[in-house]
Specification:
- The protein has one domain: Indigoidine synthase domain (Indigoidine synthase fold, 3-Layer(aba) Sandwich).
- The chain is built from 13 helices and 11 strands.
- Strands 1, 2, 3, 4, 5, 6, 7, 8, 9, 10 and 11 form an 11-stranded mixed sheet that branches.
- It is globular, with a radius of gyration of 18 Å.
Length: about 300
């Protein structure tokens, strides 16, 4: 795969320093400007403070980028041009048409694996959408997590999804879901979901050993580390569920489908909760980036 590395990321990879991949769909489509740019910079800073190097991925004018210059990150955030939301299936089209866009979890997993990056931080993964038995709306993220050897740090699956079905599909795909300091799956904006996790870790060294065993010893695919969102910004699950039900009804009324559903629901939740979900989203992104940086350092050290 033809990749363009930033100087900082190239130096880090050449010298075997810890690197953390970051998706950019959250910048291009997920959060409003200027919150999206501030969040991206805060995540990069959290990773650096942990001792690792951040590597935001994107396609810019048809070039697959691993590590972005600040001007490129700003360009994605400002959205003054059409920007694609890029899953794995869309990468070839973006390259061939010289388009620009932010990478989702699936595309970032693929690009991180191609670059030799073993840790990736995001907000929440995609999965099985509510009502999937009727429309079969299932994210590409599940297949990417199963295929690519990347440790993905998140706050669980996005709360707008069908979480029990998402967990069942992750199990079917052979993706381990491991709680970080918890035995319950976080649900993105909330610290709980009512879903018990079979596996958990309480320290970063154990998390790193699991990832190394999966990738280096067994040659298997990805692993998912779920970090509860910070208590001070997390929302009660019942409050989020009420708002999701209302927002889903509005999405159906407007005929919003496919990859447009999640960004719409997240915007609606922000409006309906007076900005509480946006605040929670920003906090969990940085919290996840911090743990991902620590995980990358431990993985590189061989802890």
């Amino acid at each position: 795969m033809d990749l363009r590395f930033s100087d900082e990321v190239r130096r880090a990879l050449d010298s075997r320093q810890p690197v953390v991949a970051l998706e950019t769909s959250v910048v291009a489509q997920g959060l409003p400007y200027p919150d999206n740019l501030a969040a991206a910079r805060a995540c990069e800073e959290a990773i650096r403070r942990a001792g690792a190097v951040p590597a935001a991925t994107a396609v810019v004018d048809g070039v697959v980028c691993i590590g972005l210059e600040d001007s490129e990150l700003r360009r994605l955030a400002e959205g003054k041009e059409p920007l694609l939301k890029l899953g794995s299936r869309d990468l070839a089209i973006a390259v061939a048409t010289r388009a620009s866009g932010g990478t989702t979890v699936s595309a970032t997993c693929e690009l991180a694996a191609a670059a030799g990056i073993r840790v990736f931080s995001t907000g929440g993964i995609g999965g099985v959408h509510r009502g999937a038995s009727e429309h079969w709306d299932i994210s590409q993220d599940i297949a990417a997590l199963a295929r690519f050897p990347v440790a993905v740090v998140c706050a669980g699956a996005k709360s707008v999804l069908d979480l029990p079905k998402t967990m069942e599909l992750l199990e079917t795909a052979g993706v381990p879901v491991i709680g970080v300091g918890t035995r319950e799956l976080p649900s993105f904006h909330s610290r709980d979901s009512g879903i018990t996790l079979e596996h958990s870790v309480n320290d970063v060294a154990t998390a790193a050993r699991i990832a190394r065993a999966r990738f280096e010893t067994l040659g298997q695919g990805g692993v998912l580390y779920t970090v509860p969102p910070p208590e001070e910004t997390a929302l009660p699950r019942h409050e989020v569920e009420l708002q999701i039900a209302s927002a889903l009804a509005e999405a159906e009324r407007q005929g919003i489908k496919g990859k447009d559903v999640t960004p719409f629901l997240l915007r609606e939740l922000g409006l309906r909760t007076g900005g509480k979900t946006l605040k929670a989203n920003l906090a969990l992104l940085v919290n996840n980036a911090r743990f991902a940086g620590q995980l990358a350092v431990a993985y590189a050290r061989g802890d």
